[in-house]
């Protein structure tokens, strides 16, 4: 299965049981909702997926289970976030062996690599896997920016195909298109800039709140791409307070609370994360409750 790098691709949460095991029953509930809504791919093991807390065996089990569950309907993409080049290559090889069809890759973790070191890091992984790669460019959270000049070097590898654009600079979408045209697919990686990014020409949206609101997320994307901007904007304006739950250090807890409210997730997180408490919890629950109270009726967005 080739990856088109377009549409809505959820960066899904990892579901846990109360005794801290992988919860594949609840995971399946969420996957069915994502597929029914019309997502274009499933991304595992990102920040929202609590990848830094997952054991190696759990990551592999998660990939294998998702591949079986999606059954070829959409590609399964595994996030690579490693400290060493060797570790990243091994992780990519394991994901490929387990049935993943693509990779999302962060720059080296913890060490702030130079531009040259970062290019070599991505290049070595690209040379050692046949899987297509989406570079996750998020200098705000991970302190390393993949610049246009760095992409110029990276794009000599055919399997480096896309960028999850999370610089927070909306004009960067236009810079990327002007420089690389269709050679580099662009997916918005910031929920609160998603519609703006799509209107500037992004090919897709890697979303967080889609985990709780899959239909609304895909509707916004499809309507915008169909030129029905007013309808997309109306849903997006309703969605924005919820989308802001994704640009917060408690994004995992926030989005899992939203999944509980929509019936397609649980609140269980893995320590050191803990469920929200006190005034912060009440604030988030209030945002979610208002979103549900005013939840819009969607047009037939699947047949545009």
From TrEMBL:
Xref: SUPFAM superfamilies: Aldolase
Pfam family, one: DHDPS
Enzyme category, top tier: lyase
Record-level Gene Ontology MF annotations: 4-hydroxy-tetrahydrodipicolinate synthase activity; 5-dehydro-4-deoxyglucarate dehydratase activity; N-acetylneuraminate lyase activity
CDD domains, A to Z: DHDPS-like
UniProt entry keywords in alphabetical sequence: Lyase
EC number: 4.1.3.3, 4.2.1.41, 4.3.3.7
Protein origin, superkingdom: Bacteria
Entry's family note: Belongs to the DapA family.
Protein name: Dihydrodipicolinate synthase family protein
Organism from which the protein derives: Flavobacterium cupriresistens
